[in-house]
Amino acid sequence: MFDLPHNFGDYTLVAFIGRTRGGILYQAIQQGMDRSVFLELLDPDNPEGVGVEDFLMKARTRAAINAPVLGTVYEASQAQGYWFVTSEQLGGSSLQSMLDRGQTLSMKDLLKVIETVGNVCGRYERLRTAFNIMEPRHIFLDDKSAVRLMNTAVPGDFHEETSRDQMKRLGIDLPPLVTPDVPGTTRMRTLLEWMREGQNGKPMQWDQVMELVAAVREQLGLSPRVTTHRYTVPVESRRKAGKKLLWAGMGLLGVGIAAAAVLLLFPREKETVSRPHVPAPKHYPDFSSSDHTEVRVTLPGGGELIVGAHEITLESYRLFLDQWARLTPELREEYSHPDQPDKRTASHIPQDWEAMWKAASTPGGKWKGRKITPRSPVVNVTFWDAWAYASWKPVAPGEPRYRLPERGEWMALGNMLETGEKGDRTLVIDRYSNDHDLKTGVCGMASGVMEWTSSMEKDPARVKEPPGPVACGGDWRQPGISNRVEYLRSRGESRDNLGFRIVRNVL
Hints:
The structure is a single chain. By secondary structure, the protein is α+β, with helices and mostly antiparallel strands. The protein folds into 3 domains: 7-88, Phosphorylase Kinase, domain 1, CATH 3.30.200; 93-261, Transferase(Phosphotransferase), domain 1 (Orthogonal Bundle); 287-505, Alpha-Beta Complex (paralog of FGE (formylglycine-generating enzyme)), CATH 3.90.1580. The protein contains 13 helices and 20 strands. The chain has helices at residues 52-63, 95-101, 107-127, 160-173, 185-197, 206-219, 235-244, 287-291, 314-324, 329-335, 353-360, 383-392, 407-416; strands spanning 7-8, 11-20, 23-30, 35-42, 73-79, 82-88, 93-94, 129-131, 139-141, 147-149, 153-157, 294-298, 304-308, 366-367, 370-371, 450-457, 468-472, 485-487, 498-499, 503-505. The chain has a 6-stranded antiparallel sheet with strand order 1-2-3-4-6-5. Strands 18-17-16-19 form a 4-stranded mixed sheet. Strand 14 and strand 15 (370-371) form a beta hairpin. The longest helix is centred in the first third of the chain and has 21 residues, at 107-127. The chain is elongated. It starts with 6 loop residues before the first strand and ends with a strand. 38% of the residues are buried. Residues 226-290 and 420-434 have low confidence and may be disordered. Residues 308-504 form the Sulfatase-modifying factor enzyme-like domain. It holds the Pfam family FGE-sulfatase. This is Sulfatase-modifying factor enzyme-like domain-containing protein. The chain crosses the membrane at residues 245-266.
């Protein structure tokens, strides 16, 4: 296992997406350009045996394909001893996410998907470029019905079988996205059947598919697509194709009948995440060397835990907010707690965040009468906020994910502290303060803010009520207490004396 830093050259890793052949795919922020990207990292120990030259050759191959619908390759470079390639992060939702949600598409959008994939297959064929078959996770559709594709070109010789297999793959993947019982449904299902199984026992060609798509467009009263590659059907051919198609014998509707009844794309969730209008630092903080430090602690009774040396700071949380707003709804849901009611739309912006950050970023600034800096613990965060932060924070491949501590773990840590005098009434993290334990290297467990845990327990004072969330530790109101426990009413509760720290297991 290799030690991958959180900040990687000019990039800050946001989220782990998955593994590729020889590599690891992350969502990242390019700091200098302030944009979201896909970052594919060459795994030095990849089991496929992909070397640096092969890794870079794939990037060069994709960069040579110039098509507006394909994601752009930005950079192939090396930083801190690791080779990586960055490319455009496509907007909208992938077809895979729509399939997972049980969503269906309008005939217009399904036709655009087929045409766009066919166009790219034609481009690959003309350039004699090999490519991997595009799956639903490679095809994106935004709220303006624009179709974009991840670039799947690879070094090697072009094979026509791959292009036909791509057609068959669409014929297999798209049927669940067809809206039932609307004008065009039967025609679309027939077209997809022919794409995967052939027509009259003969495999379909992309030229035939494009002519059929053009005919369906004309029959539904949709404007023809303007394309330029070899699969494009001229306007004259489209008119003829509409007359010659074999739809009539299948009981299909005639030209123009369905035009007024074409179903629009299902309403999509609108992005409601708002980014705070507050001063932004020129550069993102360096998690690996300054803002997020952690220590390895042996717990009483055995067992080890990697613990955040202090509570999550405003500085760290601001980076999280900035990057959370760029995540796709699918990734937001993945990093949210399973019980959270608004997994895809929650902004995780704390109450009074703008005033809090403005005071923190102003020299000598105060918030609610107390000194505050970017290194102060973030407060006014709910359990959902704390959970999302811990789930989102990237780790090295194969390492345990970050999480909130359990109540028992927190209390065991608090009882270990030998800090002497405790009680920092400010909201400033200082590893040389009275509440910095020289034995463990952990600070802030008896001052500053109380901290969320992952535990749900019954309040001894409310035995008839169901279990509720638990917070632990001292705070600026009652400093010096590391064994304090408070049973909260709701995971949505937020207060100016409540923050959190994160931990992770030791392999």
